[in-house]
Design a protein that fits this description.
By secondary structure, the protein is α/β, with parallel strands linked by helices. The chain has helices at 13-16, 46-56, 78-91, 102-113, 128-137, 155-162, 182-192, 204-207, 241-254, 260-271, 273-292, 308-317, 333-342, 372-377, 394-406, and strands at 95-99, 119-124, 144-149, 166-170, 195-199, 217-221, 235-239, 297-301, 324-329, 347-348, 358-360, 384-388. The strands form two sheets. It has a seven-stranded mixed beta sheet, with helices on both faces. Helix 5 links the parallel strand 2 (119-124) and strand 3 (144-149). Helix 3 packs parallel to helix 10 (260-271) and helix 4 packs across helix 9 (241-254). It is globular. It starts with 12 loop residues before the first helix and ends with a helix. Bound molecules: pyridoxal-5'-phosphate. The site of pyridoxal-5'-phosphate (PLP) has 16 residues, from helix 4 and helix 5.
Length: 408
């Protein structure tokens, strides 16, 4: 194109996120990128078609200012390309790839690097769907899947002996909000030549930047804070180009990319990611303190209330406590269900990170696939309730929780 549409001019991510990666001349000077709702793209000539395929198959390097080489929307599309450029900004990454869901981001990434007989270590607890993929799917491909508890003090010795190809950590962990020292895992992964993947869904790129702490790749359920309005299912991986290029090739052949409308919606959402998340976090801090002092609450799990070693890790690597809170109600599953059924402003639904507040029961919902004994071992009891805090008036949210407790 002859235009360096990726020039940053020393601007901050909040400014760049509004315009980076898009040239209005592409579309009649429309201020915002239109939705490129097309499955395929016309080549100017057969020679150009040949060149684009050479770039797509890695036979030839693309010049930084060259046209993006559009071929077919399973490989790329302007909405996807603009989104991928913008997703690098907050994470300070070289490149990113977007997907049809968080699970397709995770599965496509893992399947890019693991071959039969390889080993993967993963931290536990973590999101139930990821657990299912590791335990019930990867094992069938003759991949050695090794789970470790976040509290495991011998983990670095075990990793040194087993030499896994991938170390996968979710920090903070869903739903117990435990944090994992990314720097320590980065050190060991570099020592043994493993790839360190961090699921950063809970804090998003606003409150945690895992690449700063040595992660090789960061995965997201973009369904959550990145989209932020509970109307999109999508995923993303950000990190170094040498890995992202390989992941994009796998994505092309698994067909796990997202579509132009979803990408356009996420572009819109990204513009308000920071201000949404800041407001959600302000609300969450007040709600966590309300819960901490409530006589019908046994324990609150919130990054803003961590103590001891967990607090030290939080302080080192997190930029804020975010808007996810879990708590144990004083009672069993029956009491927890009654509480959930009493809620009026909070909606009883899984997922998180949207503008509206949600409540769910991890034991019987998001983490129900994990054996009961295992759940109890890691602190997911039938009295645990998980809250995702939205942007509502915080007094309305606290009053809703108050009346749900009073009517137990
Ligand atoms: C931490 C975490 N990672 C990954 C996922 C999977 O994302 P998706 O539902 O977009 O496939 C979720 C979903 O809840 C999650 O909470």
């Amino acid at each position: 194109m002859g235009i360096d549409y990726k020039k940053k001019n020393n601007l901050k991510p909040e400014t760049l996120i509004l315009s980076y990666g898009y040239v209005p001349a592409w579309s009649e000077y429309a201020l915002k990128p239109p939705i490129y709702q097309t499955s395929t793209f016309i080549f100017k000539s057969a020679e150009e078609g040949k060149k684009f395929f050479e770039i797509a198959y890695g036979l030839r390097e693309k010049e930084p200012t060259e046209s993006i080489g559009l071929i077919y929307s399973r490989l790329n599309n302007p909405n996807i390309e603009i989104l991928e450029d913008r997703l690098t900004l907050y994470d300070e990454a070289e490149d990113s790839a977007v997907f049809s869901s968080g699970m397709s981001a995770i599965s496509t990434t893992i399947l890019t690097f693991l071959k039969p007989k390889d080993k993967i270590f993963y931290s536990f607890p973590l999101y139930g769907g990821t657990y299912y993929f590791f335990e019930h799917f990867l094992k069938d491909f003759d991949i050695e899947v090794i789970k470790f508890y976040i509290s495991d003090k011998n983990i670095f010795e075990r990793i040194k002996i087993e030499k896994p190809k991938i170390i996968y950590i979710e920090t903070p962990a869903n739903p117990t909000l435990e944090v994992i020292d990314m720097e320590k895992f980065s050190k060991i992964s570099k020592e043994i030549g493993a790839i360190l993947i961090v699921d950063n869904t809970f804090l998003g790129p606003i409150y945690q930047k895992p690449l700063r702490f040595g992660a090789d790749l960061v995965v997201y359920s973009a369904t959550k804070y990145i989209s932020g309005h509970s109307d999109v299912v999508a995923g993303a991986v950000v990190g170094y180009s040498k890995y992202i290029n390989q992941i994009k090739t796998t994505r092309t052949f698994l067909g796990t990319i997202t579509d132009p409308i979803n990408a356009w919606l996420i572009l819109r959402s990204l513009e308000t990611l920071k201000i949404r998340f800041e407001k959600q976090t302000q609300n969450a801090i007040k709600i966590a303190n309300f819960l901490k002092n409530h006589p019908k609450v046994r324990k609150v799990y919130y990054l803003g209330l961590l103590e001891g070693e967990q607090y030290e890790i939080y302080k080192k690597q997190c930029l804020g406590p975010g808007a996810m809170i879990s708590f144990d109600i004083d009672g069993d599953e029956k009491v927890a269900f009654k509480f959930l059924n009493n809620l009026k402003v909070f909606k009883l639904a899984v997922s998180l990170g949207g503008t509206e507040s949600l409540a769910e029961h991890p034991y019987s919902m998001t983490h129900s696939d994990i054996e009961n004994e295992e759940k109890l071992k890691i602190g997911i009891s039938d009295s645990m309730i998980r809250l995702s805090i939205g942007i509502e008036n915080v007094d309305d949210l606290i009053n809703d929780l108050k009346q749900a407790f009073e009517n137990l």
